[in-house]
Write a structure and sequence with these properties.
The protein is an alpha/beta fold and 438 residues long. 32% of the residues lie in helices and 23% in strands.
Length: 438
Amino acid sequence: MTRYTIIGAGFSGLSAARDLARAGHPVTVIEADAHVGGLAGSFAPDPAIGGDMLDRFYHHWFTSDRDVMELIDELGLSDQVTVEPSLTGVWFNNRTLRLSTPLDLLRFPALPLLDRLRLGLLTLRVRRISDWRALESLTAEEWLRAMGGDRVWRVIWEPLLRGKFGRHADQISAVWIWNKLKLRGGSRGKGGAEHLAYVRGSFARVAEAMAADIRAHGGIVKTGAPVQRLTPQDNGDWLIEGEWGCASAEAVIATPAPPVVAGMISHWAPPSDLAGLTRISYLANLCLVLELDRSLGATYWLNVNDPTFPFVGVIEHTNFQDPAHYGGRHIVYLSRYLPQGDPLLSLPDAGVLDFALPYLQRMFPAFQPSWIRRHHVWRAPWAQPLVEQHYSSLIPPEDGPLPGLYLCSMAQIYPEDRGTNYAIRQGRKLAARLLSGS
């Protein structure tokens, strides 16, 4: 049996580790954070009121996410999953416009009727596109302008892309937005409304169940242990080192962002290999979570189509899940993607809240800071790979620079983009390959 070390306890690492451990291989998972789940980590709400754990970053699944649903069934958590219709909208011209169903689109006042029809036709045409390779040479702007026209681009798509990617918006591939639209289209019910899934108790509950299953099959899951160096040994083993100590393995699966892996192997890897690992750029994410004593509004997912507003989305989680699960509190996420090193990322939590308050009051005039019972700020430096044109040529191979080192990260799930469903699929796919000996 091969001794495996998996670096990272996100969903890809846990998925690979679980399948390998269940097949009888000695497995050790080493995670830098104090919790498992990666970006799907959780935290406790106000202990004075109790309630379910909260996601650090907002999450849901689409009804088309089969890999995660299969895993949840294996873990015996299917009865904890709920599927609910979602209320989505757009903040445009200082007001919230509903945009959840085809009827909402027909009534959408930000576009003339002809452009509303073009937008609706675009979403239908997206679902018929199966060969994403035909889109690789196009930017998202080029493709969306061609599909929906200039006005639809200016009102709907340009503010969203610039709000998320900032100065990188012009580089984003058409494949990235195609995949987003395809996912949302595939999660709509018969009446055209989008239905989304969630597991009671936070996404971390699934990650923790996976970690427990790994341990039950003889594996080790070590948290709070950042890996600093990864070194090949003369006998073919790998030495994994950090301030916590060291470990050895016959094979290593590295799940952090490729530039992070490059830092672990920079003391021996050839410059050409390091260049390949650092070629893909990333954005960080800053997420402000508010526990309120009342609701901001009726919308679950509010896209912000206003370039002067610093958050790309306002997600009121408790318009998707009942506030009763959180002691009656109303949970709101405000998300902003930023270049790594942006000064806003280094603000103290109170400074982030102070920065956000004027914008919240502008969007929701009735809102008062006294509504806030607690606030939390989470930062993820490697949150979003920048999916450029011809991204497939940039993806690092699954096999690392030397035998016995494998890469399994968000950067490699293309043409999909991020998401726990694809992380699970990627991790299990690699485990299956290793178990087959190929």
